[in-house]
From TrEMBL:
Protein name as catalogued: Starvation-inducible DNA-binding protein
Pfam family, one: Ferritin
Organism of origin: Arthrobacter woluwensis
MF annotations from Gene Ontology: DNA binding; ferric iron binding; oxidoreductase activity, acting on metal ions
CDD domains in the cross-refs: DPS
Family according to the record: Belongs to the Dps family.
Domain Ferritin/DPS: 9-143
InterPro entries found in the cross-reference section: DPS_DNA-bd (IPR002177), DPS_DNA-bd_CS (IPR023188), Ferritin-like (IPR012347), Ferritin-like_SF (IPR009078), Ferritin_DPS_dom (IPR008331)
Keywords: DNA-binding
Highest taxon listed in the record's lineage: Bacteria
Length: 149
């Protein structure tokens, strides 16, 4: 099967956000300070690995469909739906809120393209389910740090 331009663009949108999520996770990982530093530092490693692995899976699925993934920094910066992550040190509390927002933006992109992807290629839609499951779990695990009962 060869991906249509629409399928390729939809998978590219998810890929772009996953790459940016990985980068923002690293930025937070390196620059967080404050309460629960160690726990968040380690949890961010889990998110970073997940985003990196999922982006690889999406890119490889694109290649299997004869689409060409574009993970260049210029493309990611131009096309991501994630808000920019601030430079410099950031409190654990603020980093949690920003990272959860970035995860949710990536989830939003994935959900937005899901139905069109599913219509053309249910196998790629299954991959998007894996993306959603992993990211929604991370949003919960990381976000719980700032939740109040």
């Amino acid at each position: 099967m060869k991906a249509s331009p629409t399928l390729a663009a939809n998978l590219q949108a998810v890929l772009t956000d996953l790459i940016e999520l990985h980068l923002q996770g690293k930025q937070a990982h390196w620059n967080i300070v404050g309460p629960n530093f160690r726990d968040l530092h380690l949890q961010l490693d889990v998110l970073i690995d997940l985003a990196r692995n999922l982006s690889d899976d999406v890119a490889e699925r694109m290649r299997a469909l004869e689409a060409v993934p574009d993970g260049r920094s210029v493309t990611v910066e131009k096309d991501t739906s994630l808000a920019a992550f601030p430079e410099g040190l950031i409190s654990t509390h603020d980093a949690i809120d920003r990272i959860v927002a970035a995860i949710n933006a990536t989830v939003g992109t994935t959900r937005k393209v899901h139905d069109q992807v599913d219509e053309e290629d249910p196998t790629s839609a299954d991959l998007l389910h894996t993306v959603l499951e992993g990211l929604e779990q991370q949003a919960w695990l990381i976000g719980a740090e700032n939740m109040k009962p």
